[in-house]
Design goal:
alpha/beta, 7-stranded mixed beta sheet, 4-stranded mixed beta sheet, 7 helices, about 25% helix, about 25% strand
């Protein structure tokens, strides 16, 4: 007998899987993704709204405060008049007011992640283990790995789209291109990675306001809504291995360098957390599923190019929901089958909060 979608037991399993999927981790799909959206969804094809405050809704004027006492300017003691204000008719007038507006973008639920596992009655006869919980935990781990790849691919695709001739709109910022990547000398690849890539990623994010105190944010109906100004850098294993041999990590000529090595601060660079995402190297033979780097104006990416991504949680917006799984007695085996489904949608919402570097070791 199958547990239907409305069955309370199925709902409990779905809730557990949702908690596992939403559990914060250090991976790319957690750090570069937010779930700030408005609305509910229940099936493929539904839509939710991503809301964001229009910065022009708030009027701000900064300047010198003037006051006159019998025609004398109090700050200098010189007779005169109040200087004209660009937005005001007088220095003691209110600023012109604007209504606080929100812009809304539609996010469509158009993707599914399916999982299935089987619990044998022979293995489960003594009831020593919580097989369902273990199965759900493993399903969540594997789904999140797939989400890492999807999020990385969405960011890279948006960056490549911005490099095409005639591209319009705002796209993810880039350093180098797939056809003209940043070249790292083989003998000093780790040092070059820091100087030519990491520092420039930091500068671009800072200049766009993504990691400054006035960092951009989205506003939605979820409690996660907040400013996100902490950045993360993700590199494939090839880049990480090179940085392990860089002088910026291994130089022990000063006590500060000793402290840096001892404290394991390779995990933080210029205030940005450093993580490994194997899928960012299309040439990595040890990784089964990897990103693809699209052509730029019909020119294919150079052989050996890999990607480094830096950004904040404002980059990609995602809406996901784990539906109650189906549990039923197997018709072919002595045991129970579990079949589950996650429905979701994601999109690059704030491209100015991410930078993609196309890199190659010469």
């Amino acid at each position: 007998m199958a547990d239907g979608v409305g069955n309370s037991y199925g709902v409990q399993l779905a809730t557990k899987l949702q908690m596992l999927l939403d559990q914060p981790t250090s991976d790319l799909a957690s750090k570069l993704v937010n779930k700030d959206y408005a609305g509910e969804f229940f099936k493929i094809g539904d839509t939710v709204q991503i809301c964001k405050v229009d910065p022009k809704s708030v009027n701000v004027e900064v300047g010198t405060s003037y006051s006159l006492n019998n025609g004398v300017e109090s700050r200098t003691g010189v007779a005169g008049t109040i200087p004209a204000s660009p937005n005001q008719s007088g220095a003691d007038d209110f600023l012109p007011v604007r209504e606080l507006n929100f812009s809304a973008t539609e996010l469509r639920i158009d993707k599914t992640a399916k999982y299935a596992f089987y619990v044998s009655e022979i293995n489960n006869v003594e009831g020593k283990w919580n097989y369902e919980s273990s199965g759900l935990d493993l399903a969540a781990q594997r789904i999140k790995k797939e989400h890492n790849l999807e999020v990385a691919q969405a960011i890279v695709d948006d960056a490549v789209a911005g490099l095409q001739t005639g591209a319009s709109g705002t796209h993810v910022m880039t350093i180098g291109t797939p056809v003209a990547p940043i070249s790292l000398a083989a003998a000093t690849a780790g040092d070059d990675l820091y100087k030519k890539v990491f520092t420039k990623l930091f500068a671009k994010l800072h200049n766009k306001g993504a990691i400054t105190p006035d960092g951009k944010w989205t506003a939605g109906s979820n409690p996660q809504e907040a400013k996100r100004i902490a950045a993360n850098i993700y590199v494939p294993m090839a880049g990480y291995n090179e940085f392990l041999t860089s002088k910026y990590f291994t130089d022990r000529s000063t006590s500060a360098a000793d402290d840096r090595v001892e404290n394991g601060n390779i995990s933080k660079i210029l205030g940005m957390d450093l993580g490994i995402e194997p899928s960012l190297d299309p040439a990595d033979a040890d990784t089964a599923r990897k990103i693809t780097i699209g052509a730029v104006n019909s020119a294919a990416a150079e052989e050996g190019v890999f990607v480094v991504i830096a950004g904040t949680g404002n980059t990609v917006t995602m809406a996901n929901k784990a539906l109650p799984p189906r549990k039923f007695e197997s018709h072919t085996r002595y045991g129970q089958e579990y079949h589950g489904l996650e429905i979701y949608g994601l999109k690059v919402y704030d491209p100015e909060c991410a930078v993609v570097a196309f890199v190659k070791i010469a």
